[in-house]
């Protein structure tokens, strides 16, 4: 009895022989350009984050850059003041020297000092001149004196001309002398003597004044304690206004 024939074996998978065309492995899939850029940036940032030098640089920049910005803002704010040309300057009369010519002088003079009680004062003038080099006597044009008290109040004096006697510390004022007190009083006279060391003002000419409490006229006056007390001398006429009274203490004369 004959057996049936065996079925043929299944075919083996097809394999390419070496050297045959097309046997190279397929190329890897390319990463999209945007994703590739993000990956490169992430790798670089990750490497830099672990670099000690880079960390120190970032820390310094966090301090230096704000400081530079503040300095630039300060320079911008101060620039107008740096560019301003102001002829007004401080000048101590004790250090003031003049040439031999009588007409020579200095313009926009400012003298700042303190009295015996440590209270500040200042004297300014449009023009200062002296006839000798020692400047013992200094003539001033349009002088102005400002006296400030420790309690914050002040007295100001102005005149057409003035003469400063350096040895005595006295300023003689002449021509439309005005005395202003910060409490609202104004006194006018033709001549007055201001003692910068003692803080007194003396006038022997007719005085006219007005303020919150009324008006006054006298033949002279003396201011003590930088204007805290005013004594009117000679015949004095006072007209009072109704209402509260505030200001320096006033005494003297005949009340009207």
From TrEMBL:
Key words, A-Z: Membrane, Transmembrane, Transmembrane helix
Membrane-spanning segments: 63-82
Range of residues in the leader sequence: none
Composition bias type Pro residues, residue spans: 1-13
GO MF terms held by the record: lipopolysaccharide transmembrane transporter activity
Region (Disordered): 1-33
CC annotations in GO: plasma membrane
Protein's name in the database: Lipopolysaccharide export system protein LptC
